[in-house]
Amino acid sequence: MLKKLLAFFGGSLAVQQAAQSASPAEEALLRQIAERSKSDPLIGAKLGGKDVTQRLLAGMKTAQGVHIESLLCALGALAGYACQASVRAQAVARGLPETALLTSVQTKDGQTYFFGDDLNKPLAESRYSVWGIAGGGAQEAGCKSLPDLAAIFRHTSDVVGTDAFGKPRVPDNHVPRDQPINYVRTLWPVLKPVVVKYCPNPEHWPVLLGLSIQEVILMAKTVIDPCLAMQLVMEAAVPMSKVNLAMVR
What we know:
Blueprint: H1 2-19, H2 24-36, H3 43-60, H4 68-93, E1 103-106, E2 112-115, H5 117-125, H6 130-140, H7 149-159, H8 180-198, H9 205-219, H10 226-240
Antiparallel strand pairs: 1-2
Helix pairs in contact: 1-8, 3-8, 3-9, 4-5, 4-8, 4-9, 4-10, 6-9, 6-10, 7-10
């Protein structure tokens, strides 16, 4: 599936680069977003979330349809990493080193992971956090008891630097077709320009992806239990918020 995704988005990116400039329709859309953002600051995130949803649905579609667990895993992973990318971008905007607002931890295998309050806010604590937006969608879809988020954070911290890190703990019949880290490595470089186009303010990057997750959970409520969907999303988002993808931003 990742090869298909890479080919799909690689082709899309090539077309965008060949064009060099936005089409008149795209320019009109961006002007409309800028105007409407005066009354609705999140309009870019709302429209961008729908765009990302449609791009991923198209890129992940096979003859059998879209494997919903893989789509949710990909979106959760992207949303988690978008939190870190947002914090990095905000630090640079303030004239600080890129990782100044993050706490880095090096594990025995020599890998670096990132933690900190500034990272947790867009992920799970702020009004428009990934957890809050996606959880609202899960509840609207019928979830009566959201997953234990604290337990997901504890597990992530416990297994950081091990083979268990970043592997969603879901029933065998709901396992995504690839790991969150591979979705981030494949998709973030090609989707980041889309996210930035709709949301010049990096604080809104995780919001955009949270809204995409919300849309997919509601769309798939008859296919996958919304509580389980939320579990899968956060099992991908929490660890991927902490990975070091310094060369892929």
